[in-house]
Amino acid sequence: MGQQQLLLIVLGTIIVGIAVAVGINMMGNAQEQANLDAVRQDLLTIASSAQGYFAKPTMMAGGGNSFTGIELNDISFPADSINGNNAWNQNAQYTLSSPTDSTVTISAVPTSDDEVTITALIEKGDMTLTQTP
User: Fold this and answer.
1) Nearest to residue 70, comparing CAs of 91, 95, 40?
2) For residue 114, which phi and psi values (nearest 5 degrees)?
3) Which residues contact 108 (CB under 8 A, 6 or more apart)?
4) Short-list 81, 80, 75, 133, CA closest to 106
5) Which helix (H) or strand (E) holds 110?
6) How many CB atoms lie within 10 A of CB 124?
7) Other Cβ atoms within 10 Å of 43 Cβ, number
8) Domain boundaries in the chain?
9) Helix (H, G, I), strand (E, B), or coil: what is residue 52?
10) Is 102 helix (H, G, I), strand (E, B) or coil?
């Protein structure tokens, strides 16, 4: 009876160890995915504000149907630090580039994986998100 109980204890310990390892792995993946989702949400917020800037007349500090000259400061993006066309928060580093009359591009590098870049191409009334790699 003693050997059988010892075998069950060892088997139980192995099963619990495997379950803990799988749980830690799943938690890490969920945290990374949550960060990417937060970055996408930030980009949607920026895109919405940029569309508002585009439609607002120049007399009211808007673009007057143009993205030319837009900066992150113009769209009141809530970030820890904003410096012209660069912004940082707990989710990512954002860079606004290539403003033209009809389009603007915003790139984000998430804090969870600096090899990933999520890019938003904002046009009048439309936005396209792409992720590399």
Assistant:
1) 95
2) -80, 0
3) 39, 42, 43, 91, 92, 93, 94, 95, 117, 118, 119, 120
4) 75
5) strand 103-110
6) 13
7) 22
8) 2-132
9) helix
10) coil
Residue 50 near residue 75, CB atoms below 8 Å: yes
pLDDT digits (tens, 9 = 90+) for 20-32: 999 888 887 888 9
| Separation CA 67–CA 71 (nearest Å) | 9
Q: How far apart are CA 131 and CA 133, in angstroms?
A: 6
In this prediction, residue 79 carries a pLDDT of 82
Give Cα 25 to chain centroid, integer Å.
Answer: 21
pTM, 2 dp: 0.81
Q: Dig out the tokens for 38 from the structure.
A: 């937060």
Longest Cα–Cα distance in the chain: 88
* pLDDT tens figures, 43-101: 999 999 999 999 999 999 999 999 998 998 888 888 888 888 899 999 999 999 989 99
Whole-angstrom distance, CA of residue 116 vs CA of residue 110: 7
Alpha helices in the chain (DSSP H): 2-55
Q: How far apart are CA 131 and CA 124, in angstroms?
A: 21
